[in-house]
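Researcher: Structure prediction, please.
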Amino acid sequence: MSRSSSFEQPATSLTVPPGQGQPVWSVVAPPTPTVGREADIETGVRMLDAATTRLVTLTGPGGIGKTRLAVEIARRIEGDFVHGACFVPLAPVRDPELVPVAVARALGIQESRDIATSDLMLNVLRERHLLLVLDNLEHLVDEAALWVSELLGACPRVTALATSRIALQIAGERRFLVAPLDLPGEGIDDDIERLAERAAVELFVQRAGAVRLDFTLTPANASAVAGICRVLDGVPLAIELAAARLRVLSPDALLARLTDRLDVLRSDLRDAPPRHQTMRDAIAWSHDLLSTEEQWWFRRLAVFTGGFALDAAEALEEAGTSVPAIDVVTSLVDQSLVHRLPMDTGAPRFRMLEVIREYGLDCLDALGETDAVRDAHAAWCLELARRADTGIEGSDQLAWLGRLDAELDNIRGALAWLRERERIVDAQEMVGSIWEFLVLRGFYTEARAAYEALVAHPQGGALTAGRAASLSGLGIVALRQGDVVRALEALNEAVVICRQIDARRQLVRATACRGFALHTTGRVDEAYVDGMESLELAKDTGDHWGEANARVHLGLVFLQRGELDAAWAQMQAGVDLCREMGESWVLSVNLGNLSSLALRRGERELAASYKEEADHLAAQVGDMLNRAVSLSALADIDRARGDIESAERHLRDSLAVVQELGDPYSAGYALVSLGSLATAAGEIGRAVPLLRDAIAQ
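Model: Predicted structure follows.
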């Protein structure tokens, strides 16, 4: 028997124990250790241990490790069967009618000229207590599933463990979806011990050590190794093929080349089965089993980055498509080329593993369909952004924020495509429609780069609402980054455009944003003028969110003027509007401001109540900046109560948040507050560097 590869198992060995006339079968051990599957092995064993279980099917895409897992489960449990376990490799079988023949050969049973092999198998196995491992059934499943059902019905002591890209869908089947290996989370790349515990990393390091004896996980290569495992989605075959490349590449060089996964991931093992020689072969094996209609959908769904919902898939349907999106997505999930993402609530989402998605994109290119499909994808993203523009400001705010979180990678991909096609006006409208989301989530650096490129593009100079919205977003982001000059330049232009094209809704937001920028620079009177214009126009047009937002800024203007009653009235009116709309974001900001104002009025308990609600709402919408503001407000309350230690702790937590966001304005405020605390405590030596840092912001 030839040595087996790490991707496939050999046929079963056959032994006859002394004193027994019936053989006992045993599954041959794999040549390399199995990594990261102990919990899965235990799950499989438990499933097979159940008294009512006759068939367990391990499903998953090519290269996910179904065969290896089945072998380990069988080896763990074969002693529980009187006649052991028999491994039957079915990948080479092309005719479904030959499945019984393949099983007979694996069992060492001689075929008969007088009786059909399928019937012979039923007769031989009728009294055997045996675990039958049927490996790689996907290409035979339609006909073979019926024979397996007949076999289990006629042989009550036989249990089957199958591996297949698609479930057998027969009575009594229990399915086990084999997941990718555990991946390293973000932020642990410098922690060698925690990184090494991740199964994907462990497998890579183990296989890399087989081709380079001196290879170990070190601080120098840890980040690259973690990146390789993430790029490959924890798919074992992909990781093994990648690790083999370390014969000639460093981890950093390998990671850089994995932008083209399918060409890099190749094996030179002579005994690896053909479908595992390259990652492309493994996926092609599954792809070629799809119907023409399923292949049509498969390559189109590959355009989605980070996953998709059914309504997004439906946007790609074309006239004459005979199979609707919901049916084909269901089929592709069943065939392990698409998987459903875990979600407790909301619309179901689906995703392709990145290496599978890359294969689909290659299919699009090969058939000359890329431009049309990417145009359709960009059109869907643009329409989503348009709907989000208003949806994010109402009672469905949390749902829209969640949707944009989920679709952000798709929007990024669509933006790149629109820029490549020089559809700058559409690109401006798309990212201009979600500037509030980008600011709320703290994507300052990314958003500013996108806005600057779009407003400076030769084809992006048209006076449109999209350009005005992009300029408004640019202005707020620049302000958050401490670039007041650029912020006012962008916001001034946004206001001018809105007035020229009579874009009233955009004008409400542009004037409010400019008013906020003017307020932060101390130009209080000009800020008041902008705030009042935004407020009156919002009231005239019935724009409740715009009105509530304008009142936020006017409240701050009055507060800076020392007009506390007027500030309170504006903030309270904004709170009432937000509660009426069911809006959370602006409500949290207003409540935070009211908390600070209540503290100045000596109403400590009311201040604490407002602050707690503001903090809760900010957490709901994911507003890290407002959470930092709430922490700062809590520090003020602590200080008023005399709890200096708690006040300093809250201020330092607030400072950490705004520094992570890259917001020098808020960081400066936190540093000034910390310096003030130190000064009040008489610790001048500690206060001075804090205040110097504040000035440097």
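Model: Confidence is low (pLDDT under 50) at residues 1-21.
Researcher: Thanks, that helps.
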